């Protein structure tokens, strides 16, 4: 079955619960779940509810996981290529699938296989993206007609996704966007020009909660948000790369100085710019050619897991059953 993430969500449903929806497309659908980076991550303040108010420019990358969703087996099952990742309710795929099964009275069996390529807990939103792909995939396979956005009280994929994590709405939308609030208020930005991206994920464990707990907005320096938005409008890759910034870098690099070393090495080996994504530990760098990125990839191979990828202009589920 082929579909576009946006085309399946254009019809408004009337909020009525579906009764025993049947699978279409021969009961099989494949959907890709893309990673993201933060070109800018400004932490504005700590809110009364404990979350932090953010302002971030987010960008989808080609590096992706793949979910194969089948209406087969018994009840709900999740299998995963990464044997270290739990497949029970700790996995966002399981939680999102069970939510839709319950809300829409799906009585048909659902099996999902998750082919994991995005490194886990890396600042690349792998779990959030798998969650978004699960919501979109089951919505399409069972023709649930949940809209991407909703202007009334009816649930939308965006509102459902937000409940699973602040990055899920961006993963549903994809492309290039300004994210505000806790990350869920999204404004599309101009399409990012094609760019080769190198990711280096050092083998260290970073706790997002611990990083935010240590963050003091008083120590933040103003980012070049307007310059970044102008650079996107101008489609100028060098200007985009020279305006990367991330308020959390000061905290994460204090805990793990290796991250700062990787940023410096990435630039020494030819990156137009380099920065940490999210709360880390992954560092990304932009390159003006695949050759120069390949060179840096070899030089940085000792620093952790390295991935050569590129920016993805718009989200496409590209199912290829
Ligand atoms: P973000 O950038 O959104 O903060 P991240 O890239 O740092 O996310 P994830 O890969 O999304 O981190 O994983 C964060 C946590 O979510 C991990 O502790 C992991 O066990 C859990 N998790 C739940 N489901 C998944 C999944 N499908 N893939 C990866 N991690 C998952």
User: Which distinct ligands sit in these coordinates?
Assistant: adenosine-5'-triphosphate
- CATH class annotation of the largest domain: Alpha Beta
Radius of gyration from CA coordinates: 20 Å
Number of helices: 10
- What is the CATH third-level topology name of the largest domain? Ribosomal Protein S5, domain 2
Which strand-content bin applies to the residues?
25-35%
Q: What percent of the residues sit in helical stretches (DSSP H or I)?
A: 25-40%
The biggest sheet amounts to:
7 strands, mixed
Quantity of strands, as a count: 11
Number of domains: 2
The separation of the N and C termini measures: 5 Å
Structural class: alpha+beta
| Uncertain runs | 1-13, 316-321
Please, what is the average pLDDT?
A: 90
Reading the helices and strands in chain order gives: EEEHEHHHEEEHHHEHHEEHE
Taken from the alpha-carbon principal axes, the silhouette is: globular
Task: State the CATH architecture of the largest domain.
Answer: 2-Layer Sandwich
Features:
2 domains; 321 residues; 25% strand; 11 strands; Alpha-Beta Plaits; binds adenosine-5'-triphosphate; 4-stranded antiparallel beta sheet; 7-stranded mixed beta sheet; disordered N terminus; 10 helices; disordered C terminus; 29% helix; alpha+beta; Ribosomal Protein S5, domain 2; globular
Indicate the topology.
Blueprint: E1 28-46, E2 52-70, E3 76-80, H1 92-103, E4 110-115, H2 126-141, H3 157-164, H4 168-173, E5 176-180, E6 185-188, E7 196-201, H5 208-214, H6 225-233, H7 237-242, E8 245-246, H8 249-255, H9 258-268, E9 273-276, E10 283-287, H10 290-299, E11 305-310
Parallel strand pairs: 1-8, 3-4
Antiparallel strand pairs: 1-2, 2-4, 2-5, 5-6, 7-10, 7-11, 9-10
């Amino acid at each position: 079955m082929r579909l576009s993430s946006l085309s399946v969500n254009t019809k408004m449903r009337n909020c009525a619960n579906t009764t025993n929806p049947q699978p279409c497309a021969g009961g099989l659908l494949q959907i890709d779940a893309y990673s993201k980076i933060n070109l800018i991550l400004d932490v504005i303040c700590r809110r009364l509810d404990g979350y932090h108010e953010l302002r971030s420019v987010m960008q989808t990358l080609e590096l992706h996981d793949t979910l194969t969703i089948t209406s087969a087996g018994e009840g709900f099952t999740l299998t995963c290529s990464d044997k270290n990742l739990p497949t029970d309710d700790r996995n966002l795929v399981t939680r999102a699938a069970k939510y839709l099964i319950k809300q829409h009275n799906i009585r048909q069996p659902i099996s999902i296989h998750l082919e994991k390529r995005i490194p886990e807990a890396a600042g690349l939103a792998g779990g959030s993206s798998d969650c978004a792909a699960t919501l979109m995939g089951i919505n399409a396979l069972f023709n649930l007609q949940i809209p991407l956005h909703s202007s009334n009280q009816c649930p939308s994929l965006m509102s459902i996704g937000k409940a699973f994590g602040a990055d899920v709405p961006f993963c549903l939308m994809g492309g290039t966007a300004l994210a505000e609030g806790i990350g869920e208020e999204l404004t599309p930005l101009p399409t990012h020009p094609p760019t080769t991206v190198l990711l280096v994920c050092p083998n260290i464990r970073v706790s997002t909660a611990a990083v935010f707990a240590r963050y003091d907005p008083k120590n933040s320096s103003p980012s070049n948000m307007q310059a970044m938005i102008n650079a996107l409008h101008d489609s100028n890759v060098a200007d985009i790369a020279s305006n990367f910034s991330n308020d959390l870098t000061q905290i994460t690099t204090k805990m793990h100085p290796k991250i700062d070393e990787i940023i410096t090495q990435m630039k020494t080996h030819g990156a137009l710019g380099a920065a940490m994504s999210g709360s880390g530990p992954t560092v990304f760098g932009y390159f003006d050619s695949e050759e120069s990125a390949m060179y840096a990839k070899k030089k940085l191979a000792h620093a952790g897991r390295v991935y050569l990828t590129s920016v993805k202009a718009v989200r496409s589920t590209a199912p290829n059953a």
